[in-house]
Target: Recombinase family protein
Amino acid sequence: MTKRAAIYARFSTDLQNERSVEDQFVLCRKHAEQHQLTVVRTFEDRARSGASIFGRDGLLQLMDAARDGSFDVLIVEALDRLSRDMEDLAGLHKRLSFLNIEIRAVHEGVANTVLVGLRGLVGQLYREDNAHKIRRGQAGRVGSGLNAGGLTFGYAPVPGEPGKRKIVEEEAQTIRRIFEEYVAGRTPRDIAHDLNRDRLPAPRGSKWNASTINGNVQRGTGILQNELYAGRLVWNKVRMVKNPDTGRRISRPNPKEEWQSADVPDLAIISTELFEQAQARKKERGKDQPHLQRRPRHMLSGLLRCGVCGSGMSTKGRDKSDRIRIRCSASTESNSCPDPRTFYLDTVESAVLAGLSSEMKQPKVLAEYVKTYHEERKRLSAEADAKRSRLERRAAQLKREIDRLVDHLAKGIGDPNVIGPRSTELHYEREDILAELAEAPPAYEVVSLHPGILSRYEQQLETLQKALAEGIRSGDSECAEAMRDLVETVTVHRDPSAPGAVEIEVKGRLSALLGEGHYPNGVKASGGSMVAEEGLEPPTRGL
Model:
């Protein structure tokens, strides 16, 4: 019976010839004919790196078809078409072998464990060596004052001269304005507001915001920290690494001693003096904002979301009565929220606490809580019972051994210098076990639902509300974490039917315990009600 074969082809980048896939198919079909194999499926990935299996739809389709039993043999031009990563190639070979699917490489033959290990090692070394060569080439370009890759606001590539850049005067005027206003005392946030008001183009076509101007000190990013604007090209601030679990590339800052630089006075947009003045002011401002102050200052810090644009919300000063106001951060940072609105923080906090309390007071919720509580108690009790039984057996065994040794001493059997110390050692071990048994938790007892439990539960909820609010406001991090165990996000809307009213949607983190649908008040309403879209329930983990 003729075996069914599938063909897989891949090429790495857009710079390679599209014909590469068709050429691989032709080569693999000839191999199939020579070995009396019937090609039933073909799979391909165009312009996809072999460094990871993520983002390769053709390979994922191939594995789905393999699990469905669609073919018996997989043909590739070479094993590095499947992967240039040792772990991924070995994993593909293991899974296909489990499915009784043979891998054939046209240039290498039938894949076995030894060949897969060698080709995986060679492929990965080749890939890493290529990366080193590319970085070495980029370092050489930087040393010559050329661009090593990427676009920078204020500059454009020179056609026909790879690596060379020229100043875009319209964008350069914006850069000069940013530095001059910052040195004059304005904040990045205020500068961003005015740039958006004047409709000046921002990098990558987005809106101006404070972070675009300010950047990140550790990574050396942002308009104010880009030394190129003062005529000095700096490269290798960050390196890109691929997350093996997601396949996504992320940047990590390099130590400053690994940065490379070159003077490019022809690309200077501002003077060195102006740049240094900006750095001095930035350093001075940084002293007033130590990282140690970054703790939740309010009950809902970091949880609030704007109901109009979905951005986070932050405090926006106080009114004459000293009430704290909150506002959409997108509006504050870049003036980009289509319908910015200011709310009072205490109103939102009260609505959230009232909503949580209303949901938790429902008898169905209480019953579900007790049910989950019982299940957790039973599990913990079963573990405790097993441990208690193990300790009791060991204590009984030690008693028998001690009695036997004492019996031998009484009858004059054995050496007392050996039996005495051994008996003492066993005695102390038994004492430790008995002490541990005395501290073991009591057996599981059922918690019954009686008429008075609901009122007691309500009292505890009111106490919890007050304790959470007061604890968080006083800087208690445990109270802040307790709130984050209950709430994931709080989305704030204005109620169009009632001026001044607030409408909130609360999403809970702990829905995995009880699931959705347990909460009878899951409807949107004004004046402090909430939407329990994912369920909110009291934590029971660990009791």
About this structure: Residues 237 and 311 are 29 Å apart (CA to CA).
